[in-house]
Amino acid sequence: MLDLANAIKQWGRELGFQAVGITDVDLGEHEQHLQSWLGRHFHGEMTYMADHGNKRSRPAELVPGTLRVISVRMDYLPADTDAVRILKDSSKAYISRYSLGRDYHKVIRKRLQQLASRIEEQVGQFGYRAFVDSAPVLEKAIAMKAGLGWIGKNTLLMNQKAGSWFFLGELFTDLPLPVDKSQETMHCGSCFACRDVCPTDAIVGPHQLDARRCISYLTIELKGAIPVEFRKAIGNRVFGCDDCQLICPWNKFAKSTAETDFLPRHQLDSTDLAGLFLWTEQEFLDRTAGSPIRRTGFEGWLRNLAVGLGNAPSSEKVIKALEARLDYPSELVREHVQWALSQHNKDGCRQTTDDVRG
C-alpha cells in the first residue's frame, strides 16, 4: 500500500495536480466548527450547507465503505491578469480570477477519473467516487488533514509554497492506504490583512466568515436583491471577490498555472462594465459556456453589473447602458438599475445622457 500511495502521488503530478495527499475520514473537530458556523446562520441562503445531516463531515456516511480520501490541488492563477489594476479601474468589471476560464469542476473531475483508472489498472476494481466542490464534502478540512496546507484566517486553504490560488478535488476510496501527516501548524501568525481589507467586513474573526456579508456570496449565491448597505462596498466586483487573496503575504509564492483551460476567455479579465451590461441573454450564454459564471444566471449577471455601473465614474456610456435596461422585464434588474442611476445624481432623480454631457 505504501508503494501504491507513492505511485498515486506520482500519477497525480503527471495528470497536472500540483499536490496529492491522503487522509483518513475522521473530521470530528471540523464537524464541530461547521455546526457552530451553521448555528450562527453565517451560511445565509446556502441551505444546502445544512442539508444531508452529518454526511458533509463524515465521508464514510456519504459514500459507504470509504476508508481514505485522496486530496488533490490544482493551481489556477493565470499569468499577467492585472488583477489589482482592474480592481482599481472602476469602469472595468472585476471577475474573480478562478472563473475567467473553463469550469474547474469539469477539468478536475476528468483528471480524477483518469487517476482512478490508473489505480484500477494497478489493483483491479476498487470502490471510489470523485468530488469537485459538487457534493457535501469538507474539502478544506480534508486537504488540511492530507497535509496540503492549513486553513487561514480568511477560511481559505493556504500553502507555504503556493499561497491559495488553487482548486481542490477529492477521490473517496475503500483502499486502506497509508495516510499523510496533517498540517497542524497555522502560519498566519498575527497577520489580519485579509480581515482588514475585506470591503464588507465579512471576516468577523479568525477562521470565521459571515457569508451573508461576503461579496462572493452576494454576487453568486444570493438570488434576490443585494442589500443596499453593501452595494457601494462591492465596487466593480461583478462575480466573486479576491481581495483577501490579493492582500495575503503567502500569495507572493503562488505560481502561474500551466493549464490552458484556466486562461481568460472573451477578454473577461479586462472588459468594461457597460459593454458587458449590454450583452443579450444569448451572448451571455454563448460567452459563458463551460464557465463558472453561468452559476449566477443572466438575471443575476445584470443585477451585479448594474451595481458595478452605479459605482462607476459618471459618463455618457455608463448612463446610456443603464437607461437601456430601465424597462427590462425583471423587477430585480430594474430595481438595481434605478439604484445605479441614482448614484449618478445625488438627489436621487433619474439622470439622462444630456445631464452627463452637461
Automatic annotation (TrEMBL):
Q: Which residues form the active site?
A: 133
> Subunit arrangement?
Monomer.
Q: What is this protein called?
A: Epoxyqueuosine reductase
> What are the binding positions for [4Fe-4S] cluster 1 in this chain?
188, 191, 194, 248
- Function per UniProt: Catalyzes the conversion of epoxyqueuosine (oQ) to queuosine (Q), which is a hypermodified base found in the wobble positions of tRNA(Asp), tRNA(Asn), tRNA(His) and tRNA(Tyr).
The first-level EC class reads oxidoreductase
Task: Give the residues the record marks as binding [4Fe-4S] cluster 2.
Answer: 198, 214, 241, 244
Q: Which keywords does UniProt give here?
A: 4Fe-4S, Cobalamin, Cobalt, Cytoplasm, Iron, Iron-sulfur, Metal-binding, Oxidoreductase, Queuosine biosynthesis, tRNA processing
**Known cofactor(s):** [4Fe-4S] cluster; cob(II)alamin
Give the record's cofactor note, including how many are bound.
Answer: Binds 2 [4Fe-4S] clusters per monomer.
Predominant subcellular localization, coarse grouping: cytoplasm
Question: Which part of the chain is the 4Fe-4S ferredoxin-type domain?
Answer: 175-208
Q: Where does cob(II)alamin bind?
A: 56, 133, 154, 157, 168, 216, 241-242
Q: Which reaction does it catalyse?
A: epoxyqueuosine(34) in tRNA + AH2 = queuosine(34) in tRNA + A + H2O
InterPro entries for the chain: 4Fe4S_Fe-S-bd, 4Fe4S_Fe_S_CS, QueG, QueG_DUF1730
Binding annotation for tRNA = 223
The keyword Cell membrane belongs to this UniProt entry's keyword annotation: no
